[in-house]
Description:
By secondary structure, this protein is α/β, with parallel strands linked by helices.
Amino acid sequence: MNMITVHASRVYPIWIGRGLLKQCGSLLREQTKAKTAAIVTDDNVDRLYGTSVVASLVQNGFRVVKFVFLHGESAKCSKTLNQIYDFLCAHEITRTDCLVALGGGVVGDITGFAAATFLRGLDYFQIPTTLLAQVDSSVGGKTAIDLPSGKNLVGAFKQPVAVLCDPDTLQTLPEIFLADGMGEVIKYGEIQDAKLFEQLEQYKLDTIHEVLEQVITTCIDIKRRVVEEDEFDTGLRMILNFGHTLGHAIESYYHYETYTHGSAVAAGMCMMAKKTCTSELYERLCHCVLSYHLPTEVPAKLEALLPLCGKDKKRANDTLRFIVCEEIGDAQIRSMTFEAFQNWMLS
Ligand code: NAD
Ligand code: GLY
């Protein structure tokens, strides 16, 4: 088992290891005196892993209750959140109990937000079961729900008590979601770690499993360093958004139906690299992205995507902040007026 400790407003461990899920009860017990563990999960994950997680928690003295919602981004909304609050009330959850987010980023984000707000805050654990959630969303304490007006518009920073990543859970993950997570993994190489990027160039989607535990550990450690320096996302943490300015525009242009988040980010990274990198580096990034079944571009015209970049949360008044990587492993934050950004991208 690998262990990484995050030193943020809360100090917490992240355990990474194959087969750890079955030990979740004993690992969580070391971190909490909670009597009741309220698991929040979705139907897919519950079917695959619910029984073994409940068994491990019960064996370690927890009273366990479980809330299951239908999988998918559309569940990350106020309606599900209210159902979670009602469920917690019905089971008399107190501030000394804990929540357990068992699932992908949707489960992690909404459970984290419930933990940040129910009874003005209680402890929660992250047990991420998608690659995206293991390398990104379960670490760093960003929690949120979506509004009809946009994604992640209501949220809070709330660090978990611990994160447990079992790469074995990824064996049941549909290929499209494995590829999706690889978009974020490639991003980590691009922004911070040339050695990781070179390693990713040696593998492809159907062979990456061989080294996934180590790759996940490397990515989490990069995120740890960034979060420790800028927990509340006012500076360095923005580099995690490389590829996201155009990526979010792509997701939105296609109504969140055609491109997964990771594939939109992959195309966004390549489009930004085309503008800012040498052709040799651009070709390397495209080659790597393609080996993980991710797109390097989208059919929509840049002219149609750019206006949607203005909705990015990193826009402050008229100024847009975005990330460029002129060298692999070296991300820089740039800012321009939104109008200048659009003209520059089209020039
Ligand atoms: P997801 O949670 O919807 O999971 C994807 C699909 O995989 C779902 O259908 C789920 O049921 C299924 N699944 C999960 N684990 C499985 C497993 N082991 N085997 C089989 N199926 C499994 O999506 P996601 O990609 O994990 O997360 C996306 C969400 O994460 C978005 O809402 C996004 O906004 C959020 N996010 C948050 C942060 C953050 O810092 N908080 C960062 C990135 C993304
Ligand atoms: N996923 C981006 C962040 O955690 O800041």
